[in-house]
TrEMBL record:
Protein name: Lipopolysaccharide assembly protein A domain-containing protein
Domain Lipopolysaccharide assembly protein A, residue spans: 42-94
Regions that span the bilayer: 46-68
Keyword Transmembrane helix: yes
Keywords of the record: Cell membrane, Coiled coil, Membrane, Transmembrane, Transmembrane helix
Coiled-coil intervals: 80-107
InterPro entries: LapA_dom
GO cellular component entries: plasma membrane
Pfam families: LapA_dom (PF06305)
Keyword Transmembrane helix in annotation: yes
């Protein structure tokens, strides 16, 4: 199974390298359209290779997806934490009740009774 994972990673790496080599031309990225940038008196523009734009978009999409899922699953995590607290409380109560049940009995008989 480990080798299958390494094979998938290698195929993915080769695909990323192929995309990078095929898209080496320089493109200009603008924060605002030229019509809108006149209103703000700024025209931020940067020239970068196209593969950086493509890979950066993929990474940004993954990060947005991870954050979105983390926020969406908050209710399940909160419910699991609540159930874990309840389980610990019930385990303490069971231990306390077992201790009360064997109170006043011979220690050896109480141990044998607990084991069965």
């Amino acid at each position: 199974m480990r080798y299958v994972r390494y094979l998938c990673i290698a195929i993915f790496a080769v695909a990323l390298i192929a995309v990078a080599l095929a898209n080496r031309s320089v493109v200009s990225l603008r924060l605002l359209p030229t019509e809108v940038s006149g209103f703000f008196a700024v025209n931020p523009e940067i020239n970068v290779p196209l593969f950086i734009v493509i890979l950066g978009s993929i990474i940004a999409g993954l990060l947005v997806g991870f954050v979105w899922e983390w926020i969406r699953e908050y209710n399940q995590r909160a419910e699991a934490a609540r159930q874990a607290r309840e389980m610990r409380r019930l385990e303490r109560e069971v231990a306390r009740l077992k201790g009360e049940k064997y109170e006043g009995q011979d220690d050896v008989l109480a141990l044998l009774d607990r084991a069965s």
